[in-house]
Write a structure and sequence with these properties.
The structure is a single chain. By secondary structure, this protein is an alpha+beta fold. The protein has a domain at about 15-80. The protein is built from two helices and six strands, in the order E-H-E-E-E-H-E-E. The strands form two sheets. Strands 3-2-5-6 form a four-stranded antiparallel β-sheet, with no helix packed on it. It has a two-stranded antiparallel ribbon with strand order 1-4.
Length: about 100
């Protein structure tokens, strides 16, 4: 993991969910928030705030190096895929969109 693909530091705080970190579910949905630049790495399922976690960007990248393909995802954009091995599809998301 010497080739760090992100402009953000390895210790950048990111939002994720317990099901991904402790349950082994795949990252299927990623947001790069326009308002604060925060990254969100999600399972694609409905998020319950009690499952929310803050982890480092590096820990997400170590868990799934394919997210490195999204290092250039613009602020205000999201990426999704159907499965762990699926291709990332990118699109802008509407401000205030419910995640």
């Amino acid at each position: 993991m010497d080739d760090w693909p992100f402009d953000d530091a390895k210790n950048t705080a990111t939002l994720t969910v317990r099901q991904l970190v402790h349950g082994g579910q795949p990252i299927l949905l990623v947001f790069h928030d326009a308002d604060d630049g925060m990254w969100q790495f999600l399972t694609g399922e409905t998020v319950d705030m009690s499952d929310a976690m803050l982890v480092s960007l590096e820990s997400i990248y170590r868990r799934d190096p394919s997210v490195g393909e999204l290092a250039d995802l613009p602020l205000g954009w999201q990426a999704s895929r159907a499965s762990r091995a699926g291709r990332w599809n990118r699109q802008a998301f509407a401000t205030g969109e419910c995640r």
